[in-house]
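User: Hey, my collaborator sent me this sequence without any context and asked if I could get a structure. I don't really work with proteins. Can you help?
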Amino acid sequence: MLLDKEKLLMLETKANQLRHKTIDTVVDAGSGHLGGALSMIDAATLLYYQVMNINLDDPDWEDRDRFVMSKGHAGIGLITIFADLGWVPEEDLKTFNHTGSKYGIHLDSNVVPGVDASTGSLGHGLSLSLGMALASKQLKKDYYTYCMLGDGECQEGSVWEAAMAISHLYKEKQLKLITMVDRNKAQIDGETEDIMSLEPFQDKWTAFGFHAETIDGHDFETMAKSIDDAKKRTDKPTCIILDTVKGKGV
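Assistant: No problem. I've predicted the 3D structure and written it out in structure-token form, which is a compact way to encode the shape of the chain:
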């Protein structure tokens, strides 16, 4: 997937617009997990505006690519994308995390169009993604599933259980599943390496049978190439570790 200058400018501009809207929405609400939303906006922008097969007229189109925001507290970054795509009314952003609103900090897939999984309790999104990838084969569908993990989330044992299962099943089932980790190096109680060290992080994913690589999570061209390469890789699953800045753009 080559990004020409026009596409690259569009993605950079769109990501900046979404950052502004995300900040405005959190400020209006008086609450929200801003840092982790801003760190993954570039990757999410690339997915929704360039990579993923979606239907702008039907966010729940059955043949769409799936995106699981396993780090559910970053949902504010998703809802601003959905408003921009026209899946939710722009004016609804003003109700974010207000009493009675259907748009809480953790987005509900039963209520919000375009949300593929209700997440929030960390550590479960990768297992959900595996289930979706297996379902696509069972249903003879051709969609990809993308999972965005947080790095602090990877202190949960359930992440590694899912990784082990994905590695075991990937080649046999020819799964269309790509794992991404927002490695912004901070969590709610401090820096990840102070709370519970993850390093050598890339080596851990490699040990679980993944092709793992660490790239600039704010570089659209690099991310696009890594996703392209992951789609061509049939012998093992891919984990793309996105080196990001928490609160990017502030």
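In plain terms: The chain has one domain: 5-243. You can pass these tokens on to your collaborator as they are.
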